[in-house]
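Exam prep: given the inputs below (a chain plus NAI), describe the expected output before reading on.
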Amino acid sequence: WRAVKLRPRRRPWRRAGNRVVAQAGSYKVAILGAAGGIGQPLSLLVKMSPLVSALHLYDIANVDGVTADLGHCNTPAKVAGFTGKEELAGCLAGVDVVVIPAGVPRKPGMTRDDLFGINAGIVRELVEAVADHAPAALVHVISNPVNSTVPIAAEVLKRKGVYDPRKLFGVTTLDVVRANTFVAEMKGLPLADVDVPVVGGHAAATILPLLSKARPKTAFTGEEVEALTRRIQNAGTEVVEAKAKAGGGSATLSMAYAAARFLEASLRGLDGDGDVYECAYVQCQAVPELPFFACRVKLGRDGVEEVAAAAAELRGLTEYEARALEALKPQLKKSIDKGVAYAQQQP
Ligand code: NAI
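Solution:
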């Protein structure tokens, strides 16, 4: 496998005779929650992608300014803004990928699960609209708690009769991005070379970096494994606490970077690149008792093409990793069940 970097394969230009002209992308992307802390920088990064021809921005507030601002960037993607429930259908019509960062972020002292009360309803409502207006699109869920919001999205899509497990993703790329950064810093490795698979879920101890499977092969002492694992698991809280002094919020810039990297990977998969692998929280059999699990998947023309590598990656774990995997199972199962129960209780 080869790690996907935020570096498009396709050139943003092509030659026409002796002229250089912009290469038109062909994919349409919608971002729901586009005016938020993650939504704005994510929209900018997507606007820069040569694979994107149309960028639809939806939010319940402040979307006009973001649309006008981004629309002045001289990159090919055409930007359109949508606001209010009645404009959701227009926003979603014909899109290939829907990215959902809508919802409230954590404040200091909160767990991701504390966001459930508000974000569960937001994700349910938005995914209902996706089922109605973009049933074939890939759906990238960023809104926390991802461990529960993805099962909610799956139930909503099932109820609407359009669920395709290959097309629904919880975005856990930020955990991989953080793991790569922290390992490179600790070991003095070139950042571009480091790739650490991160499996499990996207909350506290459910985030499990597999340092024994890091590329390039790297030796860690027991203390280093412990320190890195804790830092990767608590990195979100590190940002929440640092931001508390000035306005609050959780990770937005690094999250936008991570979401853009995952989107680029998905678009390359749709585009027929046969060599795209990323970790994501998906429905899979990697751990039979957990219907959803973050693992490395191969991305293709219909979303997830293969999770076989994921099960293989879970073999030959160190004792530390195997214990951590066992320990995370009940917590992750509880979050999945909570999401499913919530969605099934809805009228
Ligand atoms: P924010 O509060 O800055 O932005 C959220 C945006 O969603 C706002 O513009 C708001 O108007 C919009 N929104 C709220 N309800 C909506 C609805 N029904 N339809 C459309 N838009 C709606 O929050 P931020 O920092 O952008 O975080 C967003 C979410 O992402 C949070 O749930 C946060 O926990 C999560 N997150 C996930 C990460 C991950 O790794 N998956 C990492 C960091 C944050």
